[in-house]
Amino acid sequence: MAPTLVSSPPTLRITPEPLTPQSFAPFGTVITTPFPRDLLGAPNNLPALKLPHRVPATPVYANQGSAVKISPIAPLANGYENACPSGKAAQARLSMFACFPRKLRREKQTGHRQSAVNDILNGKVHSEGGEQDGEGAEEEPDFDGPVFDVRILERHPYTTQTFIPLDLSSQKRVLRDRVPDKKSHDWKGYGEGDVGITLDGTAEQDEEQEEPIYLVIVAPTLKGQSAAATSATTSKDTAVSSSDPTTMSTIGTLSDPVNEGTVDSNRVLIRDPPDLENLRAFIARGGQAVTYGPGTWHAPMVVLGPRRVDFVVVQYVNGVEDEDCQEAAFKDGIVVDLKSLSEEEDEFWDDLKKLSKL
């Protein structure tokens, strides 16, 4: 179980921002294709090809001129050697994480968009949003908005870690096959779409479905600082495997000698803890992979949407638990506000902009 910070976290409401190479640069690397979607063949003049954003290496021809290669596209760092306390060597590891949609909490929020639309329809607001007729603004109604509670962060102190999503489109909606009930062949509830008959006589239908997204939640590191935390392990289970414990994330115990060895009394220090005051959240879609820099505090992967997302994960590991992954849990107080991701609200806001110009 992750050690829990003794001090209460700040009360923060974070609005997620789009994941871009520039915005994420303090925490790692965003991997996305720099080539336009309509580039259907290898360009004749590669040096003259204009790319929408900078790439870490010069593009070169590959595969007898039928491909363009950019290498490296992101760092793959192994910082274990001469740095980790155990001295154990690390090996490259490719894993798969099947990440299922997270359950979101609903909380009362002010319905400012709906209220603004109503005010415009009632002639109470100027096109710039000011009030008319000297009337005060009506009290805004409340609605249940989705939020994600951030309660734990982790980091990998000696390695980069890259998450590469599989079977995830960069488009908000895609057409996917739907199969009816085999006994009744009832299409009710399967939506509109073209029905086709396959060679074995079964029917299939394409339906437009919403694609999942994933949240990348990160925090800066308070380098050189320490934070007290409580651990579920007893002091007898806590061992320092290095003559230089300051390199460890969790060290020793700070428990009351009277209660030493009890679960409730066990205290540890987290070296270089996360800076929760400056935690940030990013919205990532298909077509984007993310690489966390070594030691970057981040939340375990958060998938939002109708289905799971499978990720190929690339990193180094040496099999020593506290050297491969370090965690810090904390109490409630930090939430990611997700109401801006609601399509209905986006449509409301578009309607508001149109109405304000009438």
TrEMBL record:
SUPFAM superfamilies in the cross-refs: RmlC-like cupins (SSF51182)
Keyword GTP-binding set for record: no
Biased composition (Polar residues): 244-253
A GO BP entry: purine nucleobase metabolic process
InterPro entries the record matches: RmlC_Cupin_sf, UAH_cupin, Ureidogly_lyase, Ureidoglycolate_lyase_dom_sf
Keyword line: Hydrolase, Lyase, Purine metabolism
Pfam families named in the record: Ureidogly_lyase (PF04115)
Region ranges (Disordered): 123-144, 226-257
A GO MF term: ureidoglycolate hydrolase activity
Catalytic activity: (S)-ureidoglycolate = urea + glyoxylate
Biased amino acid composition, Acidic residues: 130-143
Extent of Low complexity compositional bias: 226-243
Subunit details: Homodimer.
Protein name, UniProt field: Ureidoglycolate hydrolase
